[in-house]
Amino acid sequence: MYPLAFAKEGEEVVVKRIDAGCGAMQRLASMGINIGSRIKVIRNQNGPVIVSARGCNIAIGKGLAMKIIVERVKPS
C-alpha cells in the first residue's frame, strides 16, 4: 500500500485508507471517493493528481493525495 500521490499514470487502484480529517473525508465522499472505491490515475505529474472515479475526472491536490492510501488492482 502507498499514497495515491505515488501512483503511476494509467494505474488502477483501490482506496484502502484515508488519513484525513472529517472535512476532507466528506469532500472526497461527495466526489465519489471512499474506502473501497476503485479509481484510475489519469495524470500524475506536476500539479494535482487527476483520477477517474465513477466516470468523472477529479483533480486532487498532492497534499490530500498523500493522505489517500491505495493498493494496486491485481490483473485478473
Automatic annotation (TrEMBL):
Tree of life domain: Archaea
Q: Which residues form the Ferrous iron transporter FeoA-like domain?
A: 2-72
**Swiss-Prot/TrEMBL keywords:** Iron
Question: What name has this protein been given in UniProt?
Answer: Ferrous iron transport protein A
- Gene3D superfamilies of this UniProt entry? 2.30.30.90
Q: Name the PANTHER family on file.
A: FE(2+) TRANSPORT PROTEIN A-RELATED, FEOA FAMILY PROTEIN
**MF annotations from Gene Ontology:** transition metal ion binding
Q: Which InterPro entries match?
A: Fe-transptr_FeoA-like (IPR007167), FeoA-like (IPR053184), FeoA_core_dom (IPR038157), Transcriptional_repressor_C (IPR008988)
Tell me yes or no: is Iron among this UniProt entry's keywords.
yes
Task: List the source organism.
Answer: Methanocaldococcus bathoardescens
Q: A single Pfam family, by name?
A: FeoA
